[in-house]
Amino acid sequence: MTSTTQGTTEGAAQPQGAEREILLVPHFYRPDNIEAAASAASMLRDAGIRVRLLDQGFREPDGGASPVSSDPVLGQLESVLPGPDAAAGCELVLVLGGDGTFLRAAGVARDQDIPVLGINLGHVGFLAEGEAESLDAALRQVVDRTYVVEERMTIDVYVSAPDGEEIGRSWALNECSIENIERNKVLDAVLEVDFRPVSAFGCDGVLISTPTGSTAYAFSAGGPVMWPALDAILVVPNNAHALFAKPLVVSPRSTVAVESDPSTGTAVAVMDGFRRIELPPGSRVEVIRGSRPVKWVRLDQRPFTDRLVRKFQLPVSGWRGPKYGLA
Predict the structure, then answer these.
(1) Which DSSP symbol is given to 73?
(2) Which of 140, 158, 162, 163 has an alpha carbon within 20 to 30 A of 92's alpha carbon?
């Protein structure tokens, strides 16, 4: 079954008899995380699934052996460096950590067009499909292939210099944040949609987000929450000095552009919080719907509403529900 942007497909299938392998991407900065990663690796190996470990460069500050290399389980796993081929041949990428770890791992999965599954070991962990206490149950679904995969929209980002020469290009699952590097100065920018100007203003920056990213930086900057099934691009001016600087929701077929004034300071485009392209004064950033989505493992079919309420701890006391069974 071929999935669409909102569609789902059953657990990733591999050729009959092929050895199954999973790339494990843990966040290693707490002892509990090491224990959880070792437990996950052991459970997968006991089920006959090979486990490959992503080397994220974690080392002890005193130069001693990392807790990964000294762990009796993790120290025996094949370790690979981040890169386009890190997950080559794998069934999926399993992330144990918070949203930052997930976003980095999503790029590794996207490079190989395989799904990514997040288990939250951090704080809010909005991108995670499960929590630490449900790790064993999630792994059983992976082993049994009883999960489904849906596609999440991404954005592609193109940056050009004032003379039109391309400076760089990137992509994002959450957002592209165009930010002023010098915090004591204002970024003078012109916002454009579909090659027509919308508004010019001084600001701290402009956020261009996917529906998935609407609950992240864009939400903190005053943008609306967008359900992931929605096909759209969200534009949020960040602390703009203007009468009209409200968030915009535009077509997924639109091209959104931000031009910085040639007299303004140096800015930067930051994708998902860690991929960066420096923007000289007068640069232009164009954003369109991504050419490749991120494949996302779903462990259940609970609606996004439930996730929103749970993660943000929203008050819902007093709710009675529909009287006539419309749900």
Answers:
(1) T
(2) 158
